[in-house]
Each structure stands twice: as C-alpha cells, then as structure tokens.
Amino acid sequence: MKKFFLVLTSSIITLLLSTAGFAQGDPAAGQAKAALCATCHRADGNSILAITPKLAGQNASYLVKQLMDFKSGNRPGVTMAAMVAALSEEDMQDIAFWYASQEVTLGGC
Ligand code: HEC
What we know:
Layout: H1 2-19, H2 27-33, H3 38-41, H4 60-72, H5 78-84, H6 89-100
The structure holds heme C.
C-alpha cells in the first residue's frame, strides 16, 4: 500500500512538472482571436507593410513575451499597446501559437 502511494505521488509530481512552465496555446482559437491583427500583420502573419513586422514562423515564446511587454509598457509602442490592452495571457498564447505555426514567406516589405 505504501509503495502504491509512493508511485501515485511521483506520477502526479511528474505530470505537474511536465505541464508547468510549458504553456501551450491553441492555434485554432488564436486564428480567430487574431482577426484584428490581420489588418496590419495579415491573416497568416506575413505582413506586407514595411513598418509592420512579420509574425509568421516566429518563436511562440518570443511573441508572447513581446505582447506581454507591450501590455505592461516594458516595450514602448502606442499602436501595439492599444492592440493588446484587452488580451488575456491565454489570448496571447493562442495567437502566438497560431502565428508560430504559419510559414514565413520572403519579400513583401
Ligand atoms: C494598426 C496596425 C497594427 C495592428 C492592427 C496590430 N499590430 Fe502588431 N505591430 C504593429 C507595428 C507597427 C509593430 C511594430 C512596433 C514596433 O516595433 O515599435 C507591431 C509589432 C508587433 C509585434 C512585435 C513583433 C516583433 O518582431 O517584435 C507583435 C508580436 C505584434 N505586433 C502582434 C500583434 C497582434 C497579436 C495583434 C492583434 C491583437 C497586432 N499585432 C495588431 C502594427 C499593428
């Protein structure tokens, strides 16, 4: 019985460790949430405007960090601060995983 609880406890700890710190976004939900972003970054993140960075194929963690920094003001940017104001961390994760799953195309800027 004691061994059973030991195995059970270590299984739970392993499960918790494997999920903690590796937040996963939902790309399908992110695609829907990125409708507004498409105006400037395009639907798949391959912006064709010179002043607007491409987001397609970008690292998801990097994207989440930038969105959080725009929201907190750590990264200045009037336009983007307004864009992320209403986004939750989950929204940012979803959107980041959507753009990260897209293939970047060359040119356009
Ligand atoms: C009105 C145009 C516009 C819209 C709409 C817009 N952005 Fe941006 N975005 C910009 C511009 C311009 C920059 C560059 C800002 C800078 O570097 O100062 C930028 C930068 C970014 C960056 C940083 C990219 C990098 O390489 O560091 C991310 C991430 C981003 N936008 C995501 C989004 C998301 C997500 C949305 C929708 C919620 C969105 N943007 C909506 C114009 C826009």
